[in-house]
Amino acid sequence: MYRIRFHGRGGQGVKTAGRVLGSAFFADGFEAQDAPRYGAERRGAPIFASVRAARAPIAERGPIRQPDLVVVADESLVPVAAAGVLDGIGPHSTLLIRSAETPDTWRERLRATGPLLVLAAQAGDHEAARFLGVACAAAAARLVGVISRASLEQALRAEVAEFGALAVAQSLEHAMAAWEAMAPHAGAVAEGVEPRADTLAAPAWIDLPFEPATVSAPSVHGTATSVQVRTGLWRTMRPVIDHERCHRCTWICTTFCPDAAIGVDAQGAPAIDYDHCKGCLVCVAVCPPHAIRAVPERDAERGASAPAAP
Amino acid sequence: MSESRFRRMNDLPSTHLLGAGTAMCAGCGGLQAVQEIYDVLGEKTVFVNAAGCMTLLSTYPFTPFRGSWLYTAMACAPAGAQGVRDALDLLIAKKRLPPEEDLDVVVLSGDGAAYGMGLSSTSAAIDRGLDFLYLCYDNEGYGNTGQQASAATPHAAATAGCGARAGHAGQKKDLFAIWAANRPSYVATAIGAEPLDLARKIEKARSLRGPRLILVLAPCPTGWDFDPAEMVEIGRLAVATGVWPLKEWEAGRVVHTKVRRPRLPVEEYLRRQGRFRHLFEPVRNEAALAEIQAGVDAYWAGVS
Amino acid sequence: MSRLLLTGNAAAAWGARLAQVDYVPAFPITPQTEIIETLGRWIDAGELAARLVLLESEHSMVTAAAAAAATGVRAFTATSSQGLLYAMEMIFTVPGWRAPFVLVNVSRGLATPITLEPDHSDVLAARDSGFLQLHCATSQEVLDSVLIAHRWTEDPRVRLPAIVNLDGFHLSFTREPVELPDAAAAARFLPPFDPENVRFRASRPVSQAVAVLGGGPYSYFRYEIHRAAESALAVYDEVAGAFASACGRLWPAVETHRAEDAEVVFFLIGSFATKARDAVDRLRAAGVPVGLVRPRLLRPYPVEAIRRALRGKRAVAVVDQNLSMGKGGVLHAELASALYGEPDAPRVLASFIGGLGGRDIALEEFREMAQIAARAAADGRSPAPRLLYTEGELREVRKLQGIAQAERDDLARGGSEP
After folding, report:
1. Most buried one in A179, A198, A296, B154, CB count within 10 A?
2. Which residues in chain B touch residue C129, judged by CB atoms under 8 angstroms apart?
3. Mutate to test the interface with A, among C98, C158, C160, C219 (most CBs of A within 10 A)
């Protein structure tokens, strides 16, 4: 059985990726199973999709614990523990990350022991964001090596049709580019070793004891604990304030930020809380002197756009 | 409004009470309004929530509130508010709670519950004269499940499961009028894009007792299909085209708090949103656009 | 102490009064309306310092009761049948708030067809919800059980709401002697409401009943409700003991009558158990070694007490006044699961469905059930489940059907137009 996981954010087409790959396997005569998994449905929130494919009917279901291939559409998810990108990755698992950085950089960063590949992303190419999913599906299809180009195309047309002819054409373009990019590694991903029942470790079951309602009720005795959730990790574009243009009206950006992610610093200047800013860019749109501009998150992290000091 | 402490934009707070880090979509018009509202209402509140997008404001162990919160179910938040309000009154009357521990009770509801399933419990709470504030963030559909049509969905809007071709066949229900007909203490429409108007109305509502509705149009990037950065601009257009009148009801009188003349054509508002794209592409649906404009014109013709 | 004739409804109201409840959200439904009317009268007369609020539906009523309990007051409410069903979303939701309160259910058969008369299909539909369940057979028991339930639910080892069930008509509207505990004894037994962790106040903000994402955390919170319900078994015995000390009556989790040396026992809940008790006495007088086992707690299910009571018996005639469509009697199924694999468990469990919609169970029917159970014990095989229903009753239904269908049959035969 092939066991493949896709990781991305809501809005990047990860669910579609799973369906495209599942349909492509199915078209080529495999038994296939695909499923998305997300928490709250939100644009920007981490989601993943699983795909299983085999020659025999598939009884297994649920999260894939031992993936043969993990495809990461959005590299910013790798450090996000809750996204579970690296869960179950073993020496047999191939990790494919869409990134502008090199495989060596990633190998070093993650101390990866198994195969690690990169699907090259152009720095600053944001139009491609919508098509991340289908590109990843195509890359995955090439890597498993048992899916024909024709079946991939057929699957893609079927899954994207509801978004219109233009979307289909653009999706095909991005997908086939990824298909070609993976040519040197065609067939590199093989079916995994099947789990054996005789080598399983015992589950660490416990007897859950009675605990008083003071702790066992779903109540939060604390104020604003939400600030511990770094929704800043949702961001793909970052707003940056140019303090030389800022008039310090100090109410427009702070009022219109939906997430209360703009405050005022000790000098009375607006300050963006990058731990929580989701990158909606409302502040960019509403600032009267246009003192806020949007910078791609990757570029910002590399310090290519350090804000001018207030 | 002359006694309001919100006279100029600078009177609005720069730092906010509601914690960041919630799971609302980037650019959520509802959350933006709730931020402002919470700043004025403060932390001596208990928000009683009806099922909707904002159910997920608090997910264990994270809550953005500095005051209190109770999640009920979709149809019954006003009944939950009744229980909390009555219990607080009882405790204080029986001297089991000092008066300074009192809280204002606020129902937080999306349009799905407010315009539909929750009407029964809402109407009855008004009948009983319940002292509570009812805050409805109206994104014109069942947002949490993917934007199916609700009774708040405007005519011709595309929704999940309905009509990239013709859009919603129904008309937006008039919740303002329904509340007014129930004779509460106060009803107001507002929008986050007009923050001073909103702040003054919250301040006004806070000074009153009894059942009070604040109905806030919540531009929704995910459900209405527009770039999150445009959330405020779309809100401004809703007001400038006259699609979303800003008004108050009190003791049988309706007062419009912001009247734009001349109004922008409704097209300016509609064409920015993907949910109305079918009215413009592949060809303009002149009849539908004229019908929508006529509806807005008719409303304002009745406003002096 | 004074001894009065009280209906079950009046007894329930007295229980709430002696418990000095603070808050009564209410909605009328036959056959419980008398409870809230009585409380309303007392409140108007200044005899009970509580607030009664009419909500617009039972769904809202249960929400208001739980929300008030979650704010820190002692809440009490009552419903029946269709009303309990209307509230079901919240019946399942509010136990997880871990805010204690008491709901009296006056059991009544469920639609369809709609009826006003009693059976237990309504209250048993709530058995999975997290509400504890106490089942009463007499008006005295109703009053005492309301007091017991308030203390029981408020115990920190429990903190779950409870349903106290009494049968419509046979108990709700039937007067019988009840000893009223005096107010001082009741107040000693039941101290003032302690909100503990559950409350709303300005100085201690709290977000209650929040959503949970993930199967691991969800499983924790759900299973803890179950653990609290289990914990309530031992707490019940303590509370019942304390009540006995305060008011002189002991209400065990499982009541038995002449069961120790019985070969066959009847097993049923509610007010028809008094009929069974009467039948046991008469059958004993005729030489038949029968007894009665009457569970009073159904949630938590008093497994050990039931096993003990039935150990060594040859046969159990389970009388279910309820019906799980497509499976059969609920008490029977739960009993079978409790006894499976137990050494010395009765060989035979005979399932009888009786009393649906208040259908009476006659003395000869109790005798017949005992005989069937005894014969089956001799054979060693449980008989097929049986609905208690007579030839005469079916004849009666045919007559009614005849009337209901007459015109249609007439037309079908080509008869004259009306």
Report:
1. A179
2. none
3. C98
pLDDT, tens digit only, all 304 positions of chain B: 457 899 998 899 888 999 999 999 999 999 999 999 999 999 999 999 999 999 999 999 999 999 999 999 999 999 999 999 999 999 999 999 999 999 999 999 999 999 999 999 999 999 999 999 999 999 999 998 889 999 999 999 999 876 556 789 999 999 999 999 999 999 999 999 999 999 999 999 999 999 999 999 999 999 999 999 999 999 999 999 999 999 999 999 999 999 988 999 999 999 999 999 999 999 999 999 999 999 999 999 999 7
Residue B215's SS3 state is strand
CATH superfamily of C2-193+209-247: Thiamin diphosphate (ThDP)-binding fold, Pyr/PP domains (3.40.50.970)
Displacement of CA C374 from its chain's centroid (Å) = 29
Q: Which residues of A touch C (CB under 8 A)?
A: 39-40, 208-214, 216-221, 223
Residues with Cβ < 8 Å from A134, sequence gap 6 or more?
Answer: A13, A16, A17, A20, A156, A160, A171, A174, A175
Give the residue from chain A lying closest to C95, CA to CA.
A217
Note the ipTM here. 0.94
Give the CA radius of gyration of chain C: 23
pTM: 0.93
Q: Of B290, B92, B292, which Cα lies nearest the Cα of C71? A: B92
Residue of C nearest to B88 (CA): C71
- Chain C adjacent subunits, 3+ CB pairs under 8 A: A, B
Residue C408 contacts A, CB cutoff 8 Å: no
Selecting from B75, B123, B128 the residue whose C-beta is nearest the C-beta of C53 gives B128
Residue B67's closest chain A neighbor by CA? Answer: A223
> Which domains are present in chain A?
2-194 (3.40.920.10), 231-301 (3.30.70.20)
Pick the CATH number of C255-387 from 3.90.850.10, 3.40.50.920, 3.40.630.30, 1.10.3720.10: 3.40.50.920
Q: Is residue B4 assigned to a domain? A: no
Q: Is B223 within 8 Å of chain A by CB? A: no
| Neighboring chain B residues of C53 at a CB cutoff of 8 Å | 82, 86, 128
